[in-house]
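mind reviewing this fold:
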Amino acid sequence: MCTIYGTHLAVIRAEGFRWLVTALCGLAAQAAWSSSGDAVVPRVDERIELTSIVSRLAGYEEYTNDQFKSYAQDVDRYFGRFKNHPVIAFAKKVRETAGVSFDAVPSLAIHLSQPPELRPVANLETSKLDTRWTKDSAEKYAALLRQFYVDTDCRRFFTEHAKMYAEAERRFRSTLEKVYMPWYREFYGEQPKGHFHLVIGLLNGGGNYGPHLVNADKTEDLYAIMATYRMDKSGSPLYTTDDLPTIVHEYNHSFVNRLIEDNAQLFSKSGAEIFNQTSSQMRQQAYGDGKTVIIESLVRACVVRYLTKHPIDGMNALAQTGEEQARGFLWTQKLADLLGEYENDRRHYPTLRSFIPRIGQFFESVPAQIPEMNRAVEAKRPKVLSVDPVSNGASGVDAGIQEIRITFDRPMQARSGYFGVDARSPLVGKLLAAPDGRSFVGKAKLEEGHEYGFGLFGGVFRSSDGYSLGRDFVCRFSTKGYANPAPDPHYGYRLTDGQVEFVFEKPDYLEEDIHSVSVAGDFNNWDPSANGFELTRAADGKYVLKLNAAQIGKPGEKRQFKFVVNSGTWIAPARYAQNVEIDAQGHRNLFLIVE
């Protein structure tokens, strides 16, 4: 129910999965775009911030990123001592037992009044509250949240950050104003019975969420909780025209979701067939069923139609189509073309709702075409031709190198991003697009005797016609004097006399100062803040924790784990660690076998 530009472990992904967004909106008191032409005004909402803070303290991975670093640090300093508060324990429980995560958090937040009251503002059983909540669990969470607000003097924290919130609102406003809002009424031929609002989420990293609320009078409050993941040189939030397609995307859900839900019988079979053929890629983007894929497909094709008439600062329908196809929505161009027929024949189809039968027929034809569509998209993806003057896996590299150039096989878009791997980063500053249009150049700073590495985001590097690299590209090399560590089959732990001793040593590549180290695994619900699992710094500079083996598991059981630095930085296993296992979500974890 959102678009994610999030963080996983030490890797910051600039673009990633999209979740189903049901609608958009913001504070009940703020201005909204409506049939009367009011303007949407971006706001920071204390309810969203409060529930995001609780989720962060409860270890929700999607809320523990540090992309808005200074704000995240302020939150940790102010609220860190309340990790054992009852609401935190309850938040952990509903995540474990009911899957509460991502958009389920703001879904409950908008169903509550503003703090300190935090009382339900609508019938929790009929108001479109996310189904991962029950009426009882939502009411209990709200009661504990009220107590947390009082116990932490949360009002003081929000007051202290009022200027920061106002500045974020000011910065987002200039971006939002570039969206041509009348298009929605023009394109769909109708408008939801309610108001659009836009909320800036400061702790949700790259997650864009879109819950909505049905009021007692059947009107709706339509929310867009927009991501904050891009910073300027001063570390303050930065919102640019790159955010505009996402805004257009989120608003489309306000119309599309209801259309698909009201005509579910037209799409149930085709949605299931499409999902069966594309489930691997769709699940990676957190889309778990055919209905969600159908909704996302139509939303994305509508974005293409918007950009056909209203290109945004170099972003056009062609590039957007390539981007969506590269994400697995292989049928986007054909669906967008079909919507073009609708736009050109409004005499017979006055609203998109009247065109839904044609859209249903279209999706019935998609499953048989998917194999060929997939081959066509793979052929259009760009490829890395060379990394100069180094190469992946090279050793004995001259430490005097001052520049690294990555060259692709075709013209590329100027936007780019890279991430650090489990080695030092050789790059200083940003990768910049070269004049030839096919290369990116970065300044390098190397020393002898070290391993270096960096990765290119598969979803960020895109050809000029919108097709992404697809898979992340990783380059590692070492300079003269570096010796590869010996393989370690027991990396991160020792087993002795019925005890497990966890051992952590700061990786060479980790730049942040260490304030705490804990171990999280399937033996403590992957909770880095669980009592009794924090390591202590030893005299040799390593961090250690001794536990009875019975606290980890029974003899012969395999247990996965990771080290977590400063409550939010999940450390990837070292390359020379041999006790590594990949879980069902594709995460690389360490493991031990209890003796």
